[in-house]
Design a protein that fits this description.
seven-stranded mixed beta sheet; binds beta-D-galactopyranose; 14 helices; alpha/beta; Rossmann fold
């Protein structure tokens, strides 16, 4: 609340050519002042020109509740991007932002949300561990008139969801499926055996990723084994892939892994089983480790989701809501039914990334730097891929 975007400016003209501009704000803790001086004012009669606009003040704190830490994006991108945007808008992130991470536990997240409300949060930005269980959080918030932004994952079954911000998640699955199918076709493999390593069964996104991938691959490949991976855990993905390899006598032509973490687990399992030639493996999130595996030829593709615009849109909405302002309607580009209501939504577009377009997507956007990706172990692979 220290930094108010709007300040009240009182201009006091004390002499014909002496203009003194002093700024005051409606709150006790202004940190920003604006002095406005115009030629007209300077030449005006020596009277007092006072412009007084009541500066809006934040009604409380903003809480951002993220689901886990094993996937790099949350603490490497979502949180810092969200904070940076709030700061730019003039919000005091040091004192008025509450951050909690549930480490994959839905009941922990419930407690964290309750604590945030007790500690003064008047807006919740919630990325639910469990899309159904989180309805209880949104219902509680609604009973206290606290708006809830469903961040990246949909909160289902509650009319307490104010906005939803995410990507076209079915399209994520389609991009994965199509890239895998194209590669298998290119390799000339007929009736390929594909193992599906899906995401967490409690994550609505995982359901959508899976749906999109099946839409593309069903009827074109044999779904040899399929797993939903609790908590999106890379370790569990590794166990699943180990089981699949045993059951299939190591005959796997492709792996539809839902994100880079599960892809890493599947690849570790295949290396552990002694496979020298790895089949194409998909991914998602454009994590540094995923991109490095792509460069090393271990992972075929990832899906890049530009998190900055997602986090910034969430910050903009949260800021408006905490300031008691109505967010600009042009921010919203659709609605999403969550089983209870149509939630006004901001849906962004995901992009498929293979070795060929790492530079024009991830690096061009500044999502990762060349230095982060092209560490000594990957320097040669970077050169070979033309990344400098
Ligand atoms: C999804 C999210 C992905 C990935 C995954 C695991 O909901 O959209 O980007 O991070 O969860 O946390």
């Amino acid at each position: 609340m220290k930094k108010n975007l709007l300040v009240v400016v009182s201009v006091l003209l004390v002499a014909a050519f002496a203009l003194t501009a002093c700024a005051t704000t409606a709150t006790a803790t202004p940190t920003e002042t604006v002095a406005a001086a115009t030629t007209e004012a300077a030449t005006a009669a020596a009277t007092t020109a006072a412009a007084t606009t009541a500066a809006p003040t934040a009604s409380g704190k903003i809480a951002i509740l993220l689901p886990e830490t094993k996937t790099a994006r949350y603490e490497a991108s979502d949180l810092p991007d969200f904070k940076a945007k709030l700061s730019d808008l003039g919000f005091d992130v040091d004192n008025d932002l509450i951050y909690s991470n549930a480490n994959q536990d839905a009941s922990t997240q419930q407690s964290q949300a309750e604590a945030a409300i007790t500690n003064g949060a008047t807006v919740l930005v919630l990325d639910p561990v469990d899309s159904d269980a989180a309805a209880a959080i949104a219902d509680l918030a609604k009973s206290k008139n606290i708006p809830v932004i469903s961040y990246d994952r949909l909160i289902k079954g509650s009319d307490g969801v104010t906005y939803y911000i995410s990507f076209d998640n079915e399209q994520v699955g389609k991009l994965q499926g199509q890239a895998l199918l194209d590669e298998l076709t290119k390799e000339g493999i007929t009736n390929p055996q594909v193992v599906f390593i899906n995401g967490s069964p409690t994550d609505n996104n995982a359901t959508l990723f899976k749906k999109g991938a099946h839409e593309v691959l069903d009827g074109k490949v044999t779904v040899a084994k399929e797993y939903d991976t609790p908590d999106w855990s890379p370790d569990k993905a590794q166990d699943e892939m180990t089981q699949a390899l045993t059951a299939l006598n190591n005959k796997v032509d492709g792996v539809l892994a839902a994100n880079d973490g599960t892809a890493g687990g599947a690849i570790a399992a295949m290396k552990g089983a002694g496979l020298t030639q790895l089949p194409p493996v998909t991914g998602q999130d454009a994590e540094v480790a995923g991109i490095q595996r792509i460069l090393a030829g271990e992972q075929f593709m990832t899906v890049y989701k530009a998190i900055k615009p997602e986090a910034e849109a969430a910050a903009t909405l949260a800021y408006d809501l905490v300031m008691g302002q109505t967010p600009d309607a042009s921010l919203v580009n659709g609605t999403t039914n969550n089983g209870k209501i149509d939630v006004p939504s901001i849906l962004l577009t995901p992009v498929a990334v293979t070795k060929d377009n790492i530079e024009s997507t991830i690096i061009a956007d500044g999502f990762h730097t060349v230095a982060e990706i092209c560490t000594s172990d990957f320097a040669d692979a970077c050169t070979a891929a033309g990344i400098k």
